[in-house]
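Fold tokens
===========
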Amino acid sequence: MKFIFCNEACKIWEALEKERYHTNRNPEAITKDFLSSLQINSRGKVRIHSFDRETFNEDSSDLEIWIKTQKKWFGILVKTKLIQLNNTDDSYPELNRKIDGNFECDLLIKQASSRIKKVIPFYFFYNFTNKVEDLNCKCYCLDKFMYPGYLGITAALATDIRKKIIKNSEVKNISVVSFPALCLFCPNNIYDIKKVIEKFNSNDTSQSYIYDTPPDYVNDLLINKKEFNLIKTKEYNNVINVKHLLSIEI
């Protein structure tokens, strides 16, 4: 799975490099292309349910991902952001977005903690920049800078982002708390699920995020593949409030 994510990150980096200032691109379009490619190349280890647009809310999260490893499960809730290039400092301007007077990241953190089975709130960033030195993300286990293409998707805890956006949303500020998203799926981390929770979310006890089974809606929509009409699907998304639901086997 790590190498699949490497390839997907490189594709995003190269696509954004070709478009450069990509004024017509948006994170949702990139997410859809990314998920489609991920599912095709995963050989059945990735399952995806994308909700109809009619079920979205303004504060809907982009991804909820449940990861299975060593017969255990943990989940992450994700908002995606696209880098904005400019002549001074590249940034993620949408990080400062507010919904009904609340920072979006505060809503993400609240949604993650209110799940029946709690998940960890993350941001995924879609990147290309000529100022690679500003995108100072290192591999989590090797502690060294990686090939720039691997940084096509980087990740950061929403709790860390909340502290950073008080100052600014420039890439060089955000990258201090970011890492390549592929690190979430690296065998060096996943080998011990308790360590991966502690590593990526040291603010909470690891056991509270580790489960023997995923939530019922993951079983219904992804594993048992039940078919739901739009009304039933809306009922589900009123509970989880997400655009795309994934399960990934490591």
